[in-house]
Write a structure and sequence with these properties.
Largest sheet of chain A: 7 strands, mixed
Low-confidence stretches of chain A: none
Number of domains of chain A: 2
Bound molecules: pyridoxal-5'-phosphate
Order of helices and strands of chain B: HHEEHHHH
Oligomer: heterotetramer
Low-confidence stretches of chain B: none
Number of helices of chain B: 6
Distance between the termini of chain A: 43 Å
CATH topology of chain B: Sufe protein. Chain: A
Largest sheet of chain B: 2 strands, antiparallel
CATH topology of the largest domain in chain A: Aspartate Aminotransferase, domain 2
Mean pLDDT of chain A: 96
Strand content of chain B: 5-15%
Helix content of chain B: 40-55%
Structural class of chain A: alpha/beta
Number of strands of chain B: 2
């Protein structure tokens, strides 16, 4: 059974007052709150086991190395991949940059890169830079006016353009819409397209089995999955991964160095230069263990129930436009009220202790596509309850009264 | 009718609840004279803001005073702009330098709007005003 | 007054038994232990203020942004630079990579890059890669057989080769030797050479005033300065810094994005893409505040006293060869015992609770230069006391008895 | 004289202190027959180790047993190598697969030497042996 009140008690940050009101945290798409287990793992590391990894012969270093490598195995198991297919980065953004940099020599001016208009800037700009560097053509998958994909159109597009690379989000950070990946990735595979899926938003909510998903690369950020800041990951199918050119160079990733020549290690080490974010890796494995302990189905069912309840309540308010696909969503509600500026709504909601985001959500092309300057975004996670929704809706109605 | 900063401060300080404070601010925004379209150039747009904020600064050589015009597409920022304008418009560079917007916003309980977060252009606006004043007072 | 016992009480990790003996931590050059203030700041962030920065209108996000930007100001003040000359990276390694990548377009096959044989791999390999990319010539400063610079030789070398870039360490991680930077940087400035100083080792011990030092770039790692893992910094003289090409692209560092074109922000934002390591930045500023509270002169005097005491004791042991320059050192002792393998010494010392490093210390060219395969390295920090030295020396004598 | 694994285990298990344990291990290393220079090729060198560790694996088709030769430039790793050799040398692939070095090292209180830390080559060595055995038992 899924007891949301018991779960909320695991998240100390949820138990606070904002502007003298109980915090209603609806900004999990920006970053999630952290369970006590993650905070404790971090503290435990710094207060006891703190040491650098891989190079020390002493007990602390051996312990840190063991915990560090076990964490990689834990996270790899979560995604159903092998540990040497997982590269630690500082975030989803770096993971994408690692891939776009690593592909430079594999692309040329005959190549085609396909992204979508739904992407976060992190999954747009690095590809633009790669296209510029290599002369490759950058195209965007057809997206319907409402911000949803028509699968058939996408498949046709892929068959027509036979892209060298396809980079696409697993779920939109602005809308929460889940991409119909299965068919799209299948079509791409038939064209021998290299595929990268941006899982920054989806990984927490959908807990994907990456081997089954069948993409070549998948990226995520720990801080959006109950984990610490400053850590992300790149999954790469081993051969694909190892075929990428080295990215950052320095300690840890080298085999031998002389003043004239250097040889590199194999993946994943080859992409992990410098002292890693040891504390974060260890704390993130605590986050994943916590998540796994809650049971995937229960988490998903609860999240969908909360989301549907919020949709239902929001739709009752006159003047609200919802941009999200409410039937196929990780739990993110993107909306505006009449032509009020989302900035004003978010600022006023904060007075009621309700934390939402406003703006373009680092998805300017999507906003242009939808013909809006921005929106309000309320994003839910499994630790939200029905009361959060009630408080949010009540506060929104008060804000509207202030504005009207 | 444009209120003086004193009048503004009085009504905001005496707002019985934060809602009333915001109501006042948004009202001030509404009363701000519209910014002429020709002044809304790219260079007048404060970069990196979530809301659109335009600031046009000029200097009246005869009067030795700053001339400030501004606008925003959000109600709250526009209201905050109106407060900054009321604070600085028509002052000499020396007076501007002596006028500490941080302290005034703090007194009005609006200090969070001057945070370094780049969500609104108020902080940038104050900085631009101060830096123009510094240039002119040399 | 500097009360080392009081200070040790601030470092929870120092209060533990290793193999049933009190921990003697002499591996601070690999990573330093963390004061309680840093652990508490991290916990406080995750348990209360956790939110993403720069983009949220809500209170938590505003608070996090404020703390994040204040931290930048605190660290900038420590180095006597302005906040917009400080770029956060994931470590010293990334900071060097950011510079070598950013210089790609400013160098060509007429350029000369000068490094030294004393460098950590992180300050060698990225320059090799840059040289390969641009066709520039890579040279090394003359280094005496004993691993020390002759300043006059260095100046002559710089005058002769007029390097485009000079990258040099502030202190050697293997030997602890402090580089005579003043004269070298002065000579480089006369040749309009772009200078980068690797401060990963020195920053904690020398607390440099960077404006006075006069280099163009300076890099450091937080985890070697009492701070958390996963964070480092790059100082760059503003114009120099801003002239570097963008590195990683994505959210945060862009001004506007369309599907065909992107404009970037100015430094430091331009180099900080993606969600930053918010918790680490805030915790690192707590580390710096702690360090500053101890008074630079007192810290330095104590460190030197401990180092000199260790040198004195070590020199009394027959068969010990010391490679470090003992008159000009940040507190790192590099030595071997007869021709025993450093691995064996380090492993046996661990049995006595003494944590030292053995190996090439990510400085293979230096080891080649010194004609050794590796060494034992005992590195001290201000939280070490005379008893640590006594325990270390006693343990070393026991190990020697075991080996002989 | 090369000791059997049983003999080795006995003396290590009964060491009164950890110092004695290491003394035994280093002694075992000393007694290891020297590795022929021709076998110390680049491919025999375990990469990424702080100490130099060479492993040469062969398969005796007639006897259906593994042949393992190894060496190291450090005393402790060489001694650990000697233990691994005593454990696996001359076993059939099926016997190798059934022999769990992790469990044995754990029993001897030496488990930390099989950590994934890449400081010594013992773990890599055990993995190579197991993987060769797996190939041969197919
Ligand atoms: C002199 C020197 N430079 C660079 C580095 C690399 O630092 P990091 O591994 O934290 O990126 C180190 C750390 O080992 C170092 O000692
Ligand atoms: C879909 C998507 N991709 C990429 C990112 C970038 O993640 P990070 O900022 O953690 O690198 C985000 C986070 O905002 C995101 O939502």
């Amino acid at each position: 059974m899924f007891d949301v009140e018991k779960i909320r008690a695991d998240f100390p940050a949820l138990k606070q007052l904002i502007n003298e009101q109980p915090l209603v945290y609806l900004d999990s798409a920006a970053t999630t709150q952290k369970p006590q287990a993650v905070i404790a793992a971090t503290e435990q590391f710094y207060a006891r086991n703190n040491a650098n990894v891989h190079r020390g012969r002493h007990t602390l270093s051996e312990q840190a190395t063991l915990a560090y490598e076990q964490a990689r195995a834990t996270v790899a198991a979560f995604f159903n991949i092998t540990a040497n297919e997982l590269v630690w980065t500082k975030g989803a953004t770096e993971a994408i940059n690692l891939v776009t940099n690593g592909l430079s020599e594999q692309l040329d001016n005959q190549s085609t890169i396909v992204i979508s208009a739904l992407e976060h800037h992190a999954n747009i700009v690095p590809w633009q830079q790669l296209a510029k560097r290599t002369g490759a053509t950058l195209l965007t998958l057809p997206l319907q006016q409402n911000g949803r994909f028509n699968v058939e159109q996408c498949v046709n597009f892929i068959e027509q353009h036979k892209p060298t690379v396809l980079a696409i989000t697993h779920a939109s950070n602005a809308l929460g819409n889940i991409t119909p990946l299965e068919t799209i990735l299948h079509a791409a595979k038939l064209q021998h397209t290299i595929t990268l899926v941006d899982g920054a938003q989806a990984a927490l909510h959908l807990q994907p089995n990456l081997q089954q998903l069948g993409c070549d690369f998948y990226v995520f950020s720990a801080h959006k999955m109950l984990g610490p800041t400053g850590l992300g990951g790149l999954y790469g199918r081993y051969e694909r991964l190892n075929s990428l050119a080295v990215y950052q160079t320095g300690g840890e990733m080298i085999e031998t160095v002389t003043l004239t020549e250097t040889t590199f290690r194999q993946a994943p080490a080859k992409f992990e230069s410098g002292t890693p974010n040891i504390a974060a890796v260890i704390a993130f494995s605590a986050a994943i263990k916590y998540l796994v302990s809650l049971d995937k189905t229960n988490v998903y069912t609860h999240e969908q129930a909360i989301f549907n309840y919020a949709v239902e309540k929001l739709q009752l308010i006159d003047g609200i436009t919802i941009y999200s696909d409410i039937n196929n969503n990780i739990g993110t509600l993107c909306f505006n009220y009449k032509d009020e500026h989302p900035f004003d709504i978010a600022t006023l909601l904060d007075g009621y202790g309700v934390a939402v985001r406003s703006g373009h959500h680092c998805a300017q092309p999507l906003m242009q596509h939808l013909g809006i300057n921005g929106s309000v975004r309320a994003s839910f996670a499994f630790y939200n309850n029905h009361k959060d929704v009630d408080l949010f809706i009540a506060a929104l109605q008060e804000c509207i009264a202030l504005l009207d | 009718m444009i209120k003086t900063f004193k009048e503004i401060a009085f009504s905001i300080e005496n707002a019985p609840a934060w809602q009333q404070k915001y109501r006042e601010i948004m009202l001030l925004g509404k009363q701000l004279p519209p910014m002429p379209g020709v002044l809304k150039t790219d260079s007048a747009l404060v970069p990196g803001c979530e809301s659109k904020v335009w600031i046009y600064l000029d200097f009246d050589l005869e009067e030795n005073t700053l001339v400030i015009v501004g606008d925003s597409d959000t109600r709250i920022v526009k209201g905050l702009l109106a407060i900054v304008l009321a604070l600085y418009n028509g002052l000499t560079p020396e007076q501007v330098i002596k006028t500490d917007a941080l302290a005034e916003f703090s007194r009005l309980g609006l200090i969070q709007h001057l945070s370094p977060s780049r969500g609104n252009g108020i902080k940038a606006m104050v900085e631009r005003i101060q830096s123009m004043a510094a240039d002119r007072s040399l």
